Amino acid sequence: MKNIIFLTAFILIVASNVLYGHTCSKMEVECPIDGTTVEFCVTMSMTTHGNYFDFQQQGAIGIHYEELINRCPKCNYSGNLQDFDTTFTKEEKNKLKQFLSKYDTLIIDDALECKLAGDIKEFLGMANDEISNCFLIGSYLLRKDSERIDFRKELQSMTKDFLIKALQNDEYKDSSIIASINYLIAEMYRRIGNFEQSIIYYDKALTDPNKQDWVQEVALKQKEMAIKKDDDNDI
Q1: Which residue of 49, 74, 87, 158 sits 20 to 30 Å from the alpha carbon of 198, by its own alpha carbon?
Q2: Residue 1 has what pLDDT?
């Protein structure tokens, strides 16, 4: 995925040389719809020691993922930092306000913020890769939540749907990343229990002549889980 370093630099077993944990710097931005102040805590440093098999980084990462996407408390406009550095016309603002009004009665936590950000990007016709990333981050935030498994699987299903659309629309110009995307699609299918489709996409990753070195070992290992019908989401 073009805008996410943990997809382009995925290493499952890596030791960090950083000697400190997570630190972040507060940054205030204005909502592009109504001017309300929204505060981000932008990660400055964090200690990592590898990744889960769905690319989420592990280690002393603090609130890194929670702070990648934030929301305007007044109108519910949600997105990452760059999404707040934009300008809408009066007509676009009115359309967005109408679109966002359906969320007014919901209690919006960090995971739902991510879904809302993805929904907004889809409404605005943004790149499928960017849309999928919002849903993927949301699924990370629900990894340990045993009471919201259905919502986590919904986010993972939407992640793979938009990754597939991104591939179909030729959004990835670097051929070496295609196998990584197919692998991630396979992982999303496996984690929601669609093992037949997951095996198809593991094979797409494995047979890609341009795949990165890590893909062969990791995709084979995860494919074995799919064959065993193992939907473990903890790894």
Answers
A1: 49
A2: 64
Mean per-residue pLDDT over the chain, rounded: 92
228 phi, psi to nearest 5 deg: -85, 5
Q: Is the pLDDT of residue 19 over 50?
A: no
Cβ-contact 26, 41 below 8 angstroms: yes
Three-state SS for 135?
A: helix
The token duo for 10 is 């995925």
The reported pLDDT for the residue numbered 21 is 82
- Angstrom CA distances, 43 to 27, 58, 235, stand at 10, 15, 24
| Residue 84 to residue 88: CA distance in whole angstroms | 10
Tell me how far apart the alpha carbons of residues 235 and 217 are, in angstroms, rounded to a whole number: 16
* Residue 109, amino acid: D
Contact 186, 179 (CB under 8 A): no
- The residues facing 60 across adjacent strands are 47
| pTM of this structure | 0.91
Rounded average pLDDT over 137-164: 98
125 Cβ contact list (under 8 Å, min separation 6)? none
